[in-house]
User: What shape does this take?
Amino acid sequence: MTEERVRVREVRVLSNDWYVLRKTTFDYRRRDGTWQTLSRETYDRGNGAAILPYDRSRGTVLLTRQFRYLAYVNGHPEPLVEAIAGLLDERSPEEAIRHEAEEAGCRVAQPRRVFEAFMSPGSVTERLVFFVAEYSAGDRVAAGGGRARRGRGHRGAGADARRGAGDGRERRDRRREDDHATPIREAAPAGGLTIPPSQLGCA
Assistant: This one.
């Protein structure tokens, strides 16, 4: 039997607007066996998935570029370069990421799950499933665009994984600001492909 480590005392909903912000008071059992009363705020926005499509023949990966207000208020006014990502919204991770990739203008037939991670476990409950998938020029099914109802302002960014030079193509404005995607410094999806941090503006 697993030893009891947490006893929840109280859960209060502080906000239930876009997503749910709760404040929880609980007792935590320390390693020495003593109990400590703690309080934490948790922001629940559901779980998500992210994918890095890569073209092995051309040595490129497909990323997105989008405005993030939270980055803006913290001193980064430029759009962030990110992996394609979105919330599960009661779908399986595989179903969700296929949809997100196609919405970004790329069809992926066989996304391969590589790992899962909590993105900001100090305050956000979200668990993200990460995928990689091969794509080719023929899999670029659309210019992207996203769902206007979610307020997405999103552009595609094809990065050359061998030379560190973008391919110069940008999709039309895609209004996307709410969904979570992980800004990446370097990616090695397969075959040793890497993206220099300077190409992603993260150096």
Remarks:
- The first helix runs from residue 69 to 73.
